[in-house]
Amino acid sequence: MKGAPRDYDGTEYPDAEPGEQFAASPDAFQRLWTPHRLAYVKDSHQPSEHDCPFCAAPAKSDEEALIVARGQHAFVLLNLFPYNAGHLLVCPYRHVAGYDEANSEEANEMALLTQTAMRVLRRTGGNDGFNIGMNQGEIAGAGIAAHLHQHIVPRWKHDSNFFPIIAGTKAVPRLLGEVRAELAAAWPAAEAD
């Protein structure tokens, strides 16, 4: 197929939709259709500080809240609706919405926890890369826009397949509690204080 996207090793992906095939202004982007995300985008209900799951999590046990590590200003927990196995979130304890509202201690600790999470995920899962990012605000797709959180999504070569696209289902091969226990055990003790 002419114009089919290729991986760095030359593998063709004829099922992807290259930007040149779209009407209007062609571009270099491929489109990955994720209709399951529409629920986050369309749902205008955002939890208040009183029912915020990220505010409630630290009061629960690590096992119940799926917390992997706790710092002084921020903590790391598993995403309940992971994009990939081991999908983590880094949240400040304080209920702030934007990255620009985080104080320097929170921002610094979030960065350090992210670095540690990357090392732990690589060591335990052998992933090939990461997607790291924040959706700032409801309009940008933040499922919980009122409480700052950063996504750390481990990625493996060819980790996307037909399942999420055709069946609207993401196969997560391990139970969340199992993954939390493994990551928590591998987390360096000195960095979790």
Automatic annotation (TrEMBL):
Pfam families on file: HIT
Annotated CDD domains: FHIT
GO molecular function: catalytic activity; nucleotide binding
Domain HIT, first and last residues per copy: 54-162
Binding site for substrate: N79, H151
Record InterPro entries: AP-4-A_phosphorylase (IPR052908), FHIT (IPR039383), HIT-like (IPR011146), HIT-like_sf (IPR036265)
Segments of this protein annotated with the region Disordered: 1-21
Active site: residue positions: H149 (tele-amp-histidine intermediate)
Motif (Histidine triad motif): 147-151
UniProt keyword terms in alphabetical order: Nucleotide-binding
The protein's name: HIT domain-containing protein
Species per Swiss-Prot/TrEMBL record: Ruicaihuangia caeni
